[in-house]
Amino acid sequence: MGGQGTGAHCVAVAFGTGLLCNLWHKHSMSLLEDVQAFVDKFGARPGRRTKLGIKVARVTRASPDGLVACLVEGLQCIHAGTEKKATRFLQRKTSGKCVNTSLKQWAANLKSRGNIKQSELSQALDAMSIRGNLRNVRKGLLKHAGNGSGKREAGSKSLTASKSLPAINVDGAVPVVKSCVPHAPQSVVNWIYQALLDCYSIFARLLGEGSFDEAGVWQGSGSGQLMLFWGSHLGAVRGQSMISWDYDGDLAVFLKPGASFDTTWQLGTGPLLALGYRCTKHGPHKYRIAPPNPMCWIPYKELFQQVRENDSGLNRSQIMKQCAALWRKGVRSSYPHGSNCIDIEVYTVPCGKQEITIQGTAKIAIGISSLFPAADAIFGPLRFTMPRTTDVLTQEYGQSCVTEPRVKTFTKGGVMRVSPEPVPLGVRLHAWPYVELHRVDPKYWS
C-alpha cells in the first residue's frame, strides 16, 4: 500500500508540475506580447511603478537572459505620466485633430532627448518638424503619377472605390522609380542584406548540422536545412546578388520527417527581437521578420497584404484574383505595412517520395533531386546555400527567368504581370550593400 501511495503521490506531483509549467508558459507569452506592444508603441520600457513595469522587473530578475529581458534591454523607462501624455499625443495625431500648444511643447522636449527607440511615438514626433516638406513631396508624387493638380479628389478614401490615387503615407518612405522599374532604395538594400544574414545565421545554428541527399534522406544530427528561395534564389543564380527591384528576402526551411519548426522559431525570435526586428507567424508554415516600422511600400503589394489578412484561408492565386478585382475598382490599402521583410517558408521533406509540393502562385510539384543536395549561393558579399537546380524558379517565373530579367508591371486595369519586354538599357540590375555588415560569421563571407 505504501508503495502504491507513493507512486500515486509522484504522479499527482508530476501532473501538478506540468500544469503549473503550462500555466507559466501561457503567462510568459502573454507578458511578452504586452511588452512587445508597449515597445512598438512608445519605444521605451514601461515605468517601474506601473503594473506592466512591475511584471517586467520580476521576470527579468528571474530570467536575465529571457525574451522579455532581451526586448527591453537598453531602453529608457517611460514613467506613467509621460505614458499618459504620449497616449494623448498619439490619439490626436492618428485622429487628425490639432495638437494644442502645451502638448506640442511637451513633444518637442521629448524629441530633443533623443532616447526614444523607433516606434509609433518616434514616428509621430519626427513627422511634426517636417510636415511641410512631406506635404510638398506628396503633391509632387501625386502630380508625377498623373493627377495634374497634385491634390486628392474631394471625398476620396483609401479603402473605397474612387478615381483618385491611393493615399500616400507621408510619414514613411516611398519606392524609387527609374524607367518604370521600382528600385529598392539603398537603405532598404542595406537592411535586407543585414536582416538576411542575421536570420540565416541564427536559424541555421538552431536547425543544427546536416543536409539532405539527392534521394531526400537526411544525413546529420540536426532537424533541417535552410536555403535561399524565390527572389533571393533567383538573384543569386542570375547575378550573385540581390535583384535591384526586389523589396524583401526569401528563405526556405526543409525539415526532416517528424521535425517541427515551432520550437526553433520560438528560440530564434529571442535574439532577433533583441536586435530590433519584428517577428510574426504569417500562416501555418510561413514566418516573417521585418523592421519595427515600414521602410518602403508599394500600393499594389499593400492591397495584396490586406486581402490576405482579411481572409487567411485564401491561397496565393485566390488572393491575387481578389486583389486585381479590387485594384480595378480603385480600392487601395488604408494602412501600409511596408514591403520590406525576410519571409521564411517551411516544408517537410516526405520520406520515400520523389516529389515535394511547393506553394508558389499555385502548387508546384518539384522533384526531390531538383532541390538536393543543396548548392553554394553567392549573394553579394555573402555565401549561403540554395536549391541544386532552378526548376522551382522556372516553374514559377517562366523558362527564361534565369537569363532574361523581367520586371513585374501593372496593366491599365491594375493587374500585376511580368513584363514581356526586357529591362530597359541603363537600368541597374543588381544591388549590393553600401554599409559594413555586422555579426558576420567567417563561413558566410563569399
What's the layout of helices and strands?
Layout: H1 2-42, E1 45-46, H2 51-62, H3 67-72, E2 77-78, H4 80-95, H5 101-113, H6 120-129, H7 131-144, E3 176-178, E4 181-183, H8 186-207, E5 211-212, E6 218-219, E7 224-228, H9 230-239, E8 242-243, E9 249-255, H10 262-274, E10 278-283, E11 286-290, H11 299-310, H12 316-328, E12 342-348, E13 355-359, E14 363-367, H13 368-371, E15 375-379, E16 382-386, H14 391-397, E17 408-410, E18 416-418, E19 430-431
Parallel strand pairs: 1-2, 9-12
Antiparallel strand pairs: 3-4, 5-6, 7-9, 8-19, 10-11, 11-12, 13-14, 15-16, 17-18
Helix pairs in contact: 8-10, 11-12
Shape: globular
For the biggest sheet, the summary is: 5 strands, mixed
* Biggest sheet: strand arrangement: 7-9-12-11-10
Q: Which whole number gives the mean pLDDT?
A: 77
What is the helix fraction of residues, given as a range?
40-55%
The assembly state of the depicted protein chains is single chain
Strand fraction equals 15-25%
Whole-number total of structural domains: 3
What Rg is obtained from the alpha carbons, in whole angstroms? 25 Å
**Pairing-aware structural class of the strands and helices?**
alpha+beta
**How many E strands?**
19
Overall description:
With 446 residues, this protein is α+β, with helices and mostly antiparallel strands. It is built from 14 helices and 19 strands. Mean pLDDT is 77; it is low at 1-21 and 129-173.
Short description:
This protein has 446 residues and is an alpha+beta fold. 43% of the residues lie in helices and 17% in strands. The chain is globular, with a radius of gyration of 25 Å.
